[in-house]
Amino acid sequence: MIGVDIGGANLKVVDERGAHIHYCPLWKETPIREILRGYSSAENAAVVMSGELADCFSSKQEGVEFIVAAVKDVFPRALFYGTDGTFHTTPVSELAAANWLVMADVLRDRYSDALLVDMGSTTTDIIPLNAWDHLKGQTDYSRLKSRLLVYYGLLRTPVSSLLRTVDLEGSQVGISTEYFACSGDAHVLVNLISSDEYTTATPDSCTPSREDCLRRMARMVCADVSEVGESAILNIAEAYIREEQLLITTTIRTVMEKYHCTRILAAGVGSGVLSTWLDAIDLNQEMGSLSDAMPAWAVREAMLRTV
């Protein structure tokens, strides 16, 4: 049995050997089938998704149907976890964005007093594990309203989504709204992650090296590195990180107080960053690489406990 999490940018698989993360953007011709055929020796697949929201689909339902069909071409008996907390064999609407819920389903008994914060490449899920009945049936829209989902992640968030101006040499300089640089660039430049951890495509399709991150970040003020200097570019990255940290930690504390959670679990590719900002248990330390693919791990665990 393998667990599969199909997002808009990555396809993650967990099997008895561990976690495997494949870059698989759904806004282009997607290799879902080709990737899964590499695991076709498995008995079956338990699947959860969030990629149905990709803008190559005219609706979330179209995305659900596309993903289910692609998986079933390789695993005809695949089972899909839904926001109702149960498994399905057909592309029902409940399959849309259930990846966060299956984590809560598996962890809620073990950490009943905790707030699970899963920072991925694109979003951050904020999940009170003591509120199972309230969590079931929630959509991404309802979670955005209740602040259980914030659309900021470790790697793919545009810098201009949080910054409008930046103070450079005592002047407020406007920020370009072009997709010149993203959170991955900022996190590399302030040494919160290494270039090796910048695993998604960069805005300009160049490398995640520090040199290329500097060049992309300089573009946020329509400049070259030689024009403004490295110090100014680092100021832009640091300003972004300050806004990101304030937004995410404030939201976490608000949700934690509302649901009376007493501790925080940090998971996902951004668990290390979260742990530097919060007094949190880093599940990466307890689970290793499985934490980076937690929905895939959780959907496999949820299925194994039913057989």
TrEMBL record:
Query: Per its UniProt record, what Pfam families does this chain match?
Result: Hydantoinase_A
Record GO terms (molecular function): hydrolase activity
Q: Which domain of life is it from?
A: Archaea
Alphabetical list of Gene3D superfamilies matching this protein: 3.30.420.40, conserved archaeal protein q6m145
Q: Which organism is it from?
A: Methanospirillum purgamenti
Transmembrane portions of the chain: none
The UniProt record lists the Hydantoinase A/oxoprolinase domain at 46-270
Q: What is this protein called?
A: H4MPT-linked C1 transfer pathway protein
Q: Where is the signal peptide?
A: none
